[in-house]
Amino acid sequence: MFESQDTEDPTCVIKMLDEFRQCNPTVNRPNFIDMAVVPTILQFDDCVVSHDSKKRKHTDSNVSVDTAEDSNISVLASPWETRRMKAELAEAKALNASLEERIKKLHSVRMELELVFDNEKTSFLKQRERDREIIRMLEGQIATLRKREVESRDEFSQYRQSTESSKCKLEKKILRLQEEYTHLDDRFKQVELTHKKCAAGVRRISELEGELKLSNEEVASLKDHIKLLEEKVVDVSNLKYQLELVEHCCTQAQQKIKELKLEQDKGEETRELLEKQHHNLMRLPDLEREVASLRDENRNLRDAVRNKLVLEEEVVDLRSRQAGFELREQKLAQLDASQGHLESMLEHWRQLARDHCLGVPPEKAMAGPEFLRMRIETLQQKELQLTADLGDLGIRLKTAQQAKSKVEMELDKATKQIERLQVTNDDQSKLIKRLQKRLLLVSRERDSYRSQLDMYEKELTVTSSSALLNSQQQQQRSRVEALEKTVDGYRDLVMKLEADLEKAVKGSGGIQFSERIYKLEEERNTLQQEKEQLMKRRDELEVELEYRALKGDFNPMKSKVLHIRMNPAATVEAQREDKLTHLQQECNRLQERVRVLEGGQMQDVTQEVNLRLAASSTQEVQELQEQVKSYETKLQRLKEAFKTTSQEYREVCYMLLGYKIDRIKSSLYRLSSMYAESQDDYLLFKLADGNPELLETPYSATLEQFINLHLKHQHSIPVFLSAITIDLFGHQTE
């Protein structure tokens, strides 16, 4: 600051010396243009100040000695300071003019100037003593600050250890809660899968969702607590950094004190040299030079006083920060108390787990949510087992009913066929009776013919005439042959009728049908027994559900859970969030205020801070809006790309595989073949537990042969679809 002042406007003493040299050309110039004679301008380490101001840009502390020095420089560079400097410049010019006029009268007023110089010298000596006392006071304050720094370091180390330990505990707790959350999420997914099979699983899902929400709220509260602790650690680190800056400031002040002493010694040396050169130089320029040097020293001392005031302001600021830290310690104590309350609530939960975990000896019971989780898992496993058993029994009951219906249909068919066979059997029996009657008639006729033959043979023995005998024998033979031919014809007819009867009996298959009817009756009896067992199992499950309902379980489909509207935890969390937002806004406002002060503005600081905050908020809103627009355009492009690619993918699948796949709703898909004869010929598949299942349609009812072969026996859906494609293609090519 002083160097710039000297370069722009030289001091009055130098001007006076130049004019004196012009007025007195005979004076030996090398005698009084001596570097040792020229008084040195006291500077309070402006290079250190500029260096510290450069370093100040890289720090994050709000209050420090460097900021104070930067603020001094900014104050000097402000418009008010420029006006003051211009006024001083005008005053210096006026003084220069007055001094030019007063040069002619210097010899007459020399004695008065000597008296004035003595008075000013004594006043400056007194001022120097006062400055020394101020320096001693500052050294005492620095010593107290060092003691406070040591105490704050000890407190910081203790607080850091406590925060690290609490942070470790909270991190462990968070990890444990995250594991519980993942486990509950897995259990929730399993329960969602079982929910499709049994409506009773909905109640358990709601309970698990409640527990999941509670665990999520606890995790969120713990995360907020960790954030608060981390902010406290950051504040303590900032305090430590500020203390280091104060220590650095103290060292700089000591260096400045040493430099002042050195400059004071130099000033004394210059005074001695001035006294030695007093005879070579006129008294007035010497006195004016010394007055200028003392004025510079006075200005420097004033700067030192200003720095002292800045240090006092910093001390006040540090005290206010200490009060803020004490308030934060009180808040930390309150948080510890809330932590104790939460631990007591956790103990209540554990006691609740112990109370509900019945049937376990106390020496084996784990006091905590682990055992409650184990108990819940066992109950869930039992419930899953029961639901699985119920589903299996239901499936078996359905299959038994289907088999029963099939058996009944087959039995009806068999009875109808038996009735038809009975009718045919009656017809055959009637035919057999008629044939038997005819056979009796034929046999009687045969017996009559045989009796007649016997009678003829007896008559032949009686007759004696040979001629008559020969003629009669020939007649009888011809007659016997004719009768034998008729008997053979009747015999052939009887054999044919017996063969037809055997064929009719074999063709009717009465024995096979009787055996089949017997088997069907046995299957019906077994299905009836299985049905009775399933009914007993259903009754047992209903009794168990009633027992669980008596224990306190409820059906979420029929009952509702009431939540408290004025929840204390929710209100505390909302208050904490509001407080955090308020503190964040206050922190942003203070940071912006520090930036404004560093920029050198001293007037309307609050208004400027508000304007900047409003501009930053609007700028942030505009940036966010631009980001939202960019994301929306990206999303729109992705949607368009997905539409085109999905359409192309569906067309390629349709051309390569021969089936068009349409998603009707969640987990329900419709397949239409390329070679289908009509649009109504389609198949429906439903995803259940990751496996597709064929649903019944009018078209699938015509594919019973393919279903039995490829789905029931081979268990292959691709082979089933390819077989349908080949069959449809064959029909079209025919």
Automatic annotation (TrEMBL):
It is found in: Nucleus. Keywords: Cell cycle, Cell division, Coiled coil, Mitosis, Nucleus. The keyword Nucleotidyltransferase does not apply. GO terms for cellular component: kinetochore; mitotic spindle; nuclear envelope. Residues 82-116, 205-321, 397-452, 480-544, 573-648 form a coiled coil. Pfam families: MAD (PF05557). GO terms for biological process: attachment of mitotic spindle microtubules to kinetochore; cell division; mitotic spindle assembly checkpoint signaling. InterPro entries: Mad1. Belongs to the MAD1 family. This is Mitotic spindle assembly checkpoint protein MAD1.
